[in-house]
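Data availability (excerpt). All sequences and predicted token strings are deposited with the supplementary files. A representative entry, EAL domain-containing protein, is shown inline so that the format can be inspected without opening the archive.
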Amino acid sequence: MYSSKRRGKGAMARYTGRGDGGPHADLPHLLAQALASGRPEAAGFEVFYQPIVRFTDGATVAVEALARWTSPVAGPVHPDVFVSVAERTGLVAAIDDFVLDQACTDAAALAMLYGRPIDMHVNVSAVRLGQAGLEESVAGALARTGLPPSRLVLEITETSRIKDLALAADVATRLRAHGVRIALDDFGSGFNALAQLHSLPVDIVKLDATLTDVDIAPDRVEALCRSVLAICTDLDIVVVAEGIETPSRAHALATVGCPLGQGYLFGQPGPLHRLQRPVIPAQHRPPSSAAHLAS
Ligand code: C2E
Ligand code: MG
Ligand code: MG
Ligand code: MG
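Structure token line:
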């Protein structure tokens, strides 16, 4: 099942098995070592990109940068696991900053690949909103790489861990003053989604796949999506549906007027050199009746 939000204690319990660091219960130590060098890429970190696609014509309008780590000792570790460990051990800023810098650097090559400028989505752990240095990291990455701020979208992940909405709103406001946009990641997977929408200055909402599982209850999903889309349209918020794996889900979301989607149907996350312009078979496209609803 698609869900990136089963972390915390669960992630620790998943220390055995593929992609979880294997028998290496000292993952926190390995992670600290990998990040202590200040050169995460030399310790097995890299950045993958996944396209975000416009339903009406299949055009890639953005990519999301996703951290990957193959520990020289423990092998490949799943992002849910190492991000969770990093959040608990105070190391998530080092990962986020590495990805941010690499993504801003790669944005120019991606624009070449797709033949036009595209938006770059980078994940920022909500845990970081209460810490110093985030604003400096963002401004620094933009200045170093020359990426126009309007092209950068910061996806706030683990929003359930936002304890102080007023503080988060303040940080988001200051980041937006730099010209970047803010997205709420995995919207609808937590209990306080509407409160966050109400309190935070948000440009983009990423609908969690668990909310749009049309294979479970199509009528309810349709009603729910229509409502969320109506609220977001009123608030001038753009909606991206996550975890689109099947043509039926793409079709359903496009039909209710969701403009953008991301998921294996359109492209798996991959390294820069393996990205291609997605070619969407005609039967995956939404009906033309939905075209007027998309931006
Ligand atoms: P996310 O930000 O919601 O990222 C989307 C996740 O869904 C990615 O998992 C992606 O590979 C996966 N995905 C995309 N399309 C599909 C699909 O159609 N089906 C299924 N089943 N999955 C799909 P990934 O890369 O394993 O990342 C998991 C989570 O780890 C991310 O969820 C994000 O919360 C976190 N993460 C990844 N990179 C970073 C980072 O640089 N910083 C921070 N703070 N968190 C990160
Ligand atoms: Mg994300
Ligand atoms: Mg997400
Ligand atoms: Mg999600």
